[in-house]
Amino acid sequence: MATANKTPVLSVEHVTMRFGGLTAVSDLSFEAYPNEITALIGPNGAGKTTVFNCITGFYKPTEGKIALRHADGKEFLLERMDDFRIAQHARVARTFQNIRLFSGMTVLENLMVAQHNKLMLASGYTIGGIFGSGHYRRSEKAAIDLCKAWLEKVRLIDRADDPAGDLPYGDQRRLEIARAMCTEPRLLCLDEPAAGLNPRESEELNKLLRAIRSENDVSILLIEHDMSVVMGISDHIVVLDYGQKISDGTPHHVKTDPAVIRAYLGVDEEEEEKDALAAKAVAEALGDQA
Amino acid sequence: MTAQDVAAPKAHGYDWTAIIKDLIGTAIVSLLIMVPMVAYKSVITQYSLVLVSRWTEVFVILALILGTRLAMHLFVWNRAPSPVHASAKPAGPAKASLSERIGPWVFPVLVAFAVTLPFIFHFERRPIDLGIYILTYVMLAWGLNIVVGLAGLLDLGYVAFYAVGAYAYALLSTVYFPYWFGDGIVPWAFYITLPIAGLLAACWGVILGFPVLRLRGDYLAIVTLAFGEIIRLVLINWFSFTNGPQGIEVPKATFFGLPFKAGPGGFADFFGIQHDRIYYYMFLYYVILMLALLTYFVTNRLRRLPIGRAWEALREDEIACRSLGINTTNTKLTAFAIGAMFGGFAGCFFATRQGFVSPESFVFIESAIILAIVVLGGLGSQIGIVFAAIAIMGSFEMFRELSVFQEYLPEGTDPVHFRMLAVGLAMVLMMRFRPRGFVTRRQPTVFLKERKAVSGDLVKEGHG
């Protein structure tokens, strides 16, 4: 792979996540590289969202290590950090499978909330802000400008003053991405951004994601079922099945990998029987040797 | 037996069989209820217990019920759905509704009224007293609004912070300040204690906050309720510190060191005017008005700062907040602390107005009333809270005045006892007709082109 000589921005090493007796993710390792789009795919229940929740700190993995590196060489061990600290310091932003916007706040307010930590500092932890310090007012203006820039990119500038809950579904998806980007992340984790979008909208999403990658210093980690999105924009695909990695490589490599085809399409019974016979034969042979 | 089902489909002409059936049914149910409750009354005479029958009353009430029900059938329930309801509301930028046009004027008008109130009522004591009473609750409700309305955390023990503020003033002004600084400090005690009371209450807010912030919803409500009770029980039982249920006499506030008393050295003497008790009440009135306005403006300012937006975002979706790097624990703690601080201010004022504090004043029902004002006003709406406070506290006071009813009521009952009943009824009616309070629309804190209010249906109430 061309990317092999780069330092990965995210390395997931031997991560296992158990819920009681259920092992949702088992001994998973993969890497995501700077300025690339890495897709995490797999059948339903393969553990993709669990991996996301581990990376963003919403779950603490049972075993393993998750490291995130910034371009300036800072390294964060995400499995040891609180979820909001991951967003704040390690700069990992995420969206949710079932959209989680602040529906009673306007579109613009949603993006302003995303810049909370920056503005909190500028307002002198509220004290300067209460007395209307000039520094805070300038920072707020800059923050609004950043919001405007993102609203233009996701084509929601005309709806800036409308409540987020009033937007149509596709717009809400794009707004959630814009909100995540307003935190100025190094790693953007998108959990099924194309779910519920029509083909035209997912084509538009492809364009947006490509633009985000090329114009910002950000890597994208993507969970997606929509193959037109996955194959269209990913640089690198990791395939999960039953919590285990079954394939890892370029879209072309993954598409032709028999393990992936088996996971997605299943194997016909005959082949399965053959497999079982072969396994039995091997077991017998080994038994004889013993 | 819902009458709508029976008679509603007939737009014109009456379905008399259905109506009569319904009336008979109503009569049966009414009699079932009334015969045991109204028809007989036991009276203890000198010698024995006598059963007195009151069938006349029963039939009068029954006639009233049936008459109303018939009138409802004839004039209300048979109406065809009106075309206004049927057609969809005009979409797009329709003419601004009445509430939106007068919206910006409500607050200035209210403030102007509040400032001139003593003059409007010709310096009478009664309206000024009522004003002080209502403004205290407006301030408390504005303080609680930060916790419940903005941050979406249900707090049933808000009165604890009110108590902390009141006892801070009582203890500091009567025991500690004279002991530390000598008696000369006492006339100034109110001004010095006011910020201290706020700070102490804020500290208690944080102390309460730490253990409970992991809890959500009902659990949070129960723990805050318990906290309120703990504070009250400590005040009752820590006799050596708080003087227990006997309470503490508190010095009255002074006009920046000038006591409101007749004779030399007093307020009237200093300004060369006739001594009158009313000056003291006017002074108190303006103090609480200033404190309430301070609460209003600070809260409004905070809403427009990142901290206020984080509170509202927390109410909308806590998980999304965390994914954006907001420290939700600190955000909740600040909401608790700042809400508590205003409670502390109000408590300090309450102590000096009463001239006496005792644990009696800080029972759970006070928390419930403050919460009721917040909910009735509309969660998060400051203007709504003013009207709710006037409605609830005003109606409480009204019941005190209703001696007219006295002659109709059985002996030994006081109309005051019915006030909670009336508030309960008002709450039920509100839940039926305006479930989100008087003012449901939320004003955005920042806008690009125009400030559009957010409909209450989209705003969440928070999950604790």
Features:
heterodimer; A: 290 residues; alpha/beta; Rossmann fold; 2 domains; 12 helices; 44% helix; B: 464 residues; mainly alpha; two-stranded antiparallel sheet; two-stranded antiparallel ribbon; 18 helices; 4 strands; 3% strand; disordered N terminus
Structure description:
The complex is a heterodimer of chains A (290) and B (464). Chain A has 290 residues and is of the alpha/beta class. Chain A contains 12 helices and 10 strands. Chain A has a 6-stranded mixed sheet, with helices on both faces. The longest helix of chain A has 21 residues, at 269-289. The longest helix of chain B has 27 residues, at 277-303. Chain B has 2 domains: 3-80, no CATH class; 106-401, no CATH class. Chain B contains 18 helices and 4 strands. Chain B has a two-stranded antiparallel ribbon with strand order 1-2. In chain B, a hairpin with a 4-residue loop joins strand 1 (40-44) and strand 2 (49-53). The model of chain B is unreliable at 1-11 and 84-95 (pLDDT under 50). Chains A and B meet through helix 2, helix 3, helix 4 and helix 6 of A and helix 12, helix 13 and helix 14 of B.
Domain tally of chain B: 2
Structural class of chain B: mainly alpha
- Major sheet of chain B: 2 strands, antiparallel
Radius of gyration of chain A: 22 Å
The number of distinct β-strands of chain A equals: 10
CATH-level-2 architecture of the largest domain in chain A? 3-Layer(aba) Sandwich
Elements of chain A, N to C (H/E): EEEHEEHEHHHHHEHEHEEHHH
The CATH superfamily of the largest domain in chain A turns out to be: P-loop containing nucleotide triphosphate hydrolases
Overall structural domain count of chain A: 2
Approximate strand percentage of chain B: under 5%
Oligomer: heterodimer
Q: What kind of sheet is the major sheet of chain A? A: 6 strands, mixed
The CATH class of the largest domain in chain A is: Alpha Beta
Count of helix runs of chain A: 12
Give a count of the beta strands of chain B, DSSP E runs of length 2 or more: 4
The proportion of residues forming helix of chain A, as a percent range, comes to 40-55%
Give the strand order, joined by hyphens, for the main sheet of chain B: 1-2
